[in-house]
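question for whoever is on the cluster today: can someone run the full assembly for these? two chains, 535 residues total. i dont have access anymore since they changed the login thing
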Amino acid sequence: MSSEQKEWLSQASDNLSISAEQLDQLLSDPDAQATWLRYQVAGAAIRNELPAQASNQIADDFAAWLEQEPAHQLQAEPVVAAPLSQVNVQQVASPAAANQSWWKYLMQGAIAAGVALVAVVGVQTQLKSDDAASNPLPVLQTSPIGGVAAPVSLSQTSVENRVTPEQQQLLMEQQRRLQELMQAREQQIRLMEQAAAQPQVPEQEPTQN
Amino acid sequence: MFSLAVATSSQILAAGSVAAQEVVPTTAATEDAHPQWQLLSRAQMQLKTLNFDLSFVQIKGNQLATYRWLHGLVDNTDPSQNIELERLILQDGVGTETIRRNDRVYYTVPGAPTTVTINHYIRELPSLFFLSVPELQRLYDAVQGSSIAISGRTAQLIRLSARSTGRYDYWVWLDAQTGFPLRIDTVAQNNQVLERWVVVHLQVKPEFPADLTDLITAPLPEQPLQIQRSAVAESTVQLKWLPDGYQAVEQPGTVLTRSSQLLASWLLSDGMHQISVFVQPASHMGDQLLRDGATTILVRSGEQYDVTVIGPILPELAQQIASSIE
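^ ran it for u. tokens below:
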């Protein structure tokens, strides 16, 4: 389409007069009609005269496209609620029994969450008490709260190749003791929290052996 | 060792997103005119009053643990009838979680009975968000630091410096827009970061979180198990010195270990941190000084007995405590 033609079509769109010849051409040429329509729509859009339906249709079309888009959505993770039901059964059944088993579990070392269990000691050093504080500390690796006790694994330590069986025995013994003390610390703190809100109960002999 | 952990954390930050959907405007409730304390107070308020779904990682040395932390408040016309629910779920591992309904805290692990304690917050969360501002002011000085971007959000740094030597400092970054905490570093005197707590996802919800609705009415054990107060055996060893600000907590029962004998044990508390002291028969295994994040573990091996001190304190202080046992 020539630019000259565009010009008179544009004029026609703006309701300016056009010649009879141009009008004939417009009436007979589908291309010209299409262009004239486009100009009319553009003009109406600029003047904010488009009917509301036009935008609705676009929104509907867009919604339809969205429907057809492949879904890319992660499943919401289910939150584990299983332990609760176990808890209820135990507690409802007999408070005394629960009490006993609580201490029994403490004895067995299977303390509920919050226990920082000593899992692996990276490097252990024997320090004299004098310079212990000034030396850089080896890092003790523990599992996070509530974590399941990982077995002591000396094969993971960097000193593996340099320790004798006797030293390994000593390391494992130290590990075991520290692990127990970390659990004892956890007990202390739980006892503190529990005792804080409880009335003083008279001393009594432990009912379990 | 820690440089690795820092790299890991920045990767997580890059992957993490922090999106606050709705922010309820709150005014700092403190009379204190100091903006740093007002910011902390605001953060504490948000954590107690908003419904949120938050994930954080805890970095200790080269270890990293991920947690999801849900909080919801059921509002009632009578504020005393409000139900506050909280759920802390360890993401690495199955079935381990901590639940709080108002002042009852339930610790559950698979295969063991639930432990119930009484506390208005879950102890495994950073305690500095749950102590009142005056209590914090007793232990720390606060200074406002610079703003940096964390997880793509502007964060205001507040440095909490311990008022007495022996405690570590905290550097806390709070989201400038929502006031939520984004990161906490536990920092030693030489600015070495011992432990890092970083929020990697935060969603503040307009409604009560769906994952908590079951817990509003769930029958949880009502009372903590009755503690059987047993006579604590008289010990020949004495703890002669307490660090500044700490008090010995009365122990209602004897603390037990699976196989090691305990000659004596103490728990010292400053209201925020706890120090454990254990005395055991001499093992002649030598002294040890270990660290688990910001927790110092000191074993002092003596002629008659071994002393172990465990707590979030400087090794020098642990030494001093161990030396005071006679």
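summary bc i know u wont read the tokens: The helical segments of chain A are 3-13, 20-28, 30-46, 52-68, 82-93, 95-108, 129-132, 165-196. Chain A touches chain B through 80 residues (CB under 8 Å).
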